[in-house]
From TrEMBL:
<feature type="domain" description="RDD">
    <location>
        <begin position="113"/>
        <end position="238"/>
    </location>
</feature>
<keyword id="KW-1133">Transmembrane helix</keyword>
<dbReference type="InterPro" id="IPR010432">
    <property type="entry name" value="RDD"/>
</dbReference>
<dbReference type="InterPro" id="IPR051791">
    <property type="entry name" value="Pra-immunoreactive"/>
</dbReference>
<keyword id="KW-0472">Membrane</keyword>
<feature type="transmembrane region" description="Helical">
    <location>
        <begin position="198"/>
        <end position="221"/>
    </location>
</feature>
<feature type="compositionally biased region" description="Low complexity">
    <location>
        <begin position="86"/>
        <end position="100"/>
    </location>
</feature>
<feature type="compositionally biased region" description="Low complexity">
    <location>
        <begin position="11"/>
        <end position="79"/>
    </location>
</feature>
<keyword id="KW-0812">Transmembrane</keyword>
<keyword id="KW-1003">Cell membrane</keyword>
<feature type="region of interest" description="Disordered">
    <location>
        <begin position="1"/>
        <end position="111"/>
    </location>
</feature>
<feature type="transmembrane region" description="Helical">
    <location>
        <begin position="128"/>
        <end position="156"/>
    </location>
</feature>
<dbReference type="Pfam" id="PF06271">
    <property type="entry name" value="RDD"/>
</dbReference>
<protein>
    <submittedName>
        <fullName>RDD family protein</fullName>
    </submittedName>
</protein>
Amino acid sequence: MSNVNPPGYGYPNDPQQNPYGQQPQQPQNNPYGQQPQQPYGQQPQQPQQPYGQPQQPQDPYGQPQYGQPAGGQQPYGYPQQPPYGQPQQPYGYPQQPQYGGPMGPGGPGSLPLASAGDRFLARLIDGLVLLIPVVIISFTIGAGIIGYVIIGLLYFGYEGAMMLTQNGQTVGKKVMKTRVVDAATFGRPTDGGLWTRAAVYGLPVAVYCVGSLFMLVNVLWQLWDKPLQQCLHDKVAKTVVVKEG
C-alpha cells in the first residue's frame, strides 16, 4: 500500500506540514537593547522608587521635573509669585494700604503720622473758627447749663459735618495739611466712625468744668500714646491723623 494519504479528510498533502496547514512559530530572539512589547492597551510599568526616597513629579509626557517639588509648588526658600496681572511687591515689604501701614510711618509709599504740633495748631485754628458763635451764645444765653449744652452741640456738629463733607478734614486740618483716616486700612473712616469721633471730642464740653478737663486730657493723650499717637476720641473711633504733602 502507498504511504501517501489522499488529500482532504483532514490529511495534509505534505507530511512535513502540521495537521492544520500552519507553520510552527519559531521563537524570535530579541535584538540587543529592545524591550519586549506589552499587550495592547497596557502601559509599561515604571520602576518603583526605593522606600523612604521622595518621588520626582512627572510632566504630562512622563519626564521628571528636576529641582521642583511635587504638586507644582514653588521650591522652599523662593518667594511665591503673585497671580498674572497683579503688581509684584518688593521683597520684604507687605502690600501697603492707601495711606501707609497700620504701624504709621516708615512703609514704602505711606504717609507719616501728623505731629503733635500740627494737631495742636489745627485745633487752635478750629477754635478761632468757632470763637464768634461761642461768644454770641455766651452773651445771649449766658454761661449756664443751657449755654454749655448748646456749645457742646456746636462743637459736635462742626466736627462731624466737616469730617463727612471734607473727607476727614476740618478748616484747621486743611491749613495744616492733616487728615483723619481709618487706623486699620488707612482709608476713609466710616460715617459712623466719624460721628463717634466727633461725639467723644465735642459733647463733653456740655458738662460744666468736668467737660473742659476731659477735653484737655483728650487732646494731650497723643503725647504718650504709642505707636499711633492717638487721642481718646481716635481710640474710640479707631482712627489716626496723617500728614499730607
